[in-house]
Design brief:
DUF922 domain-containing protein, elongated, mainly alpha, about 180 residues, two-stranded antiparallel sheet, signal, single chain
Length: about 180
């Protein structure tokens, strides 16, 4: 009996410390660590790290073609096997920069949840939801590019702090959609 309890407790401890192998969801209480970056670095890339994150969405359409809003699941995910860093080129600002990339994905997950919540869907929900998703995904990619450009991939500390504050404030404003 005790042996079984010990094995169960050991499994819980071991599994609770493990992140999903192929992806994991954004969590305000669980920031990125360098151990989350598992891909082999791209030696040709001019930057020191890359955090691969994005949005996933699942939804249900009823028999009349309408979206079932309460069944919609939108997640900002991090992809460890597509994310990497060059150990000799990183500094204390690099991980914060990569975290902000992940935070930008969460910001857009919240924007997508808000857009779905506010939209009056018709019997053409499948095409409507795809259009909303495509619009928000394009904005997410655009913001990621703008963030890298303005911060010079974490080299401009003043711009980095400005962006961190902007994203944190935006996440707070959309906290009802977390």
């Amino acid at each position: 009996m005790y042996r079984h309890l010990f094995l169960i407790a050991l499994a819980v401890v071991f599994l609770s410390g493990q992140r999903k192998a192929d992806r994991f969801a954004w969590d305000a209480n669980d920031p990125l660590e360098w151990s989350d970056f598992r891909a082999v670095p791209d030696r040709r890339a001019p930057y020191s790290a890359t955090a691969n994150s994005g949005l996933s969405h699942r939804y249900t359409i009823d028999s009349k073609g309408f979206l079932v809003k309460k069944a919609s699941v939108i997640t900002a995910n991090f992809y460890p096997n597509l994310s990497w860093y060059k150990p000799k080129l990183i500094d204390e600002n690099t991980l914060a920069h990569e975290q902000t990339h992940f935070d930008i994905s969460e910001l857009h997950a919240r924007l997508l949840r808000k857009a779905i919540d506010e939209y009056r869907f018709t019997k053409n929900s499948k095409s409507e939801i795809q259009k909303i998703y495509n619009t928000i995904e394009a904005k997410r990619r655009e913001m990621q590019t703008q963030f890298d450009k303005e911060t010079d991939h974490s080299q401009n500390e003043a711009a980095e702090k400005k962006w961190e504050a902007f994203v944190k404030n935006s996440l707070y404003k959309l906290r009802n959609y977390s």
